[in-house]
Amino acid sequence: MTELFLTFDIGGTSIKYGLIDQQLQLSHQGKCLTEQNKDGFILKQLLKVTASYQAQYPLTGIGVSTAGIVGAAGEIQYAGPTIPGYQGTPIKAALMAQSGLPVVVVNDVDAALLGEQLTGAAKGAASAYCVALGTGIGGAYVENGQLMTGVHATANSIGYMLYDEQTQTNYEQRASTLTLEHQLKPYGISVKDAFSEAKLGHAPYDQMIKTWAEEVATGIAPVLLLFDPEVLLLGGAVSLQGQYLVDLLTDALSPLLPPELIQTKIRVAKLADKAQLYGAVADLCK
């Protein structure tokens, strides 16, 4: 029997979706806004898209990657203010009831890592940790094919680590890409363009990017010491900086770790904004 999965990626502002087949080919993609989840818009849209695709294609399962903490029953256990009224949304139960198909719901950072392990930069790795750098900072850990999410599904919430009493900030408030964006705002330059300038050694961007990387490294160092993963992946749009970003962070990590102790390979994510779409159906593909 040919397997064909419908996959969703729910972010703070948009919902992406498409079909993934047995050969891991992604096709028939679409996208819509979340409309700030007004009147439960997100769940209604998932059901609408599912009905449309199921009427056209022989679906065998549905995968959903979503922002927020996902509970054991596939519901939104916790959601931040970026998606109003999202907490408690019974995604898995609603989709199963309508479609009659197996449904998997997974947190978006977890999904990104699962996608990279399925067909990306962590493929073949026995263990992998993903640090997603964006509006905030999220973490995800897979060991021997198993997501390690903790008893209450809140493990790897690394953005809340390293609280500094003097500045009253946590790790993600100092090291997220959004923070770097705010620091660059007075200069009228984007993060992407600042990296381009830094690569050419142009001040002040070279030092600003270096200082930001040093802040990012303060959170990566304890992850490496605690988990010792085979691969550590850098995710988020900033991962498009490739080897330059890897080299920056490798240099920044050097004074924070005992020499030659850590053997983890640091890589950038390979699938970019498609990782969550693949990761949402990773368990269905097994």
UniProtKB/TrEMBL annotation:
Q: Which residues form a coiled coil?
A: none
A GO term, aspect molecular function: kinase activity
- EC number(s) in its UniProt entry? 2.7.1.-
Record keywords, A-Z: Kinase, Transferase
Q: Which InterPro entries does its entry note?
A: ATPase_NBD, ROK
- SUPFAM superfamilies from the xrefs? Actin-like ATPase domain
Keyword Kinase, does the record have it? Answer: yes
> What family name appears in the similarity comment?
Belongs to the ROK (NagC/XylR) family.
Specify the protein name.
Sugar kinase and transcription regulator
Source organism of this protein record = Lactiplantibacillus pentosus MP-10
Write the lineage as a comma-separated list.
Bacteria, Bacillati, Bacillota, Bacilli, Lactobacillales
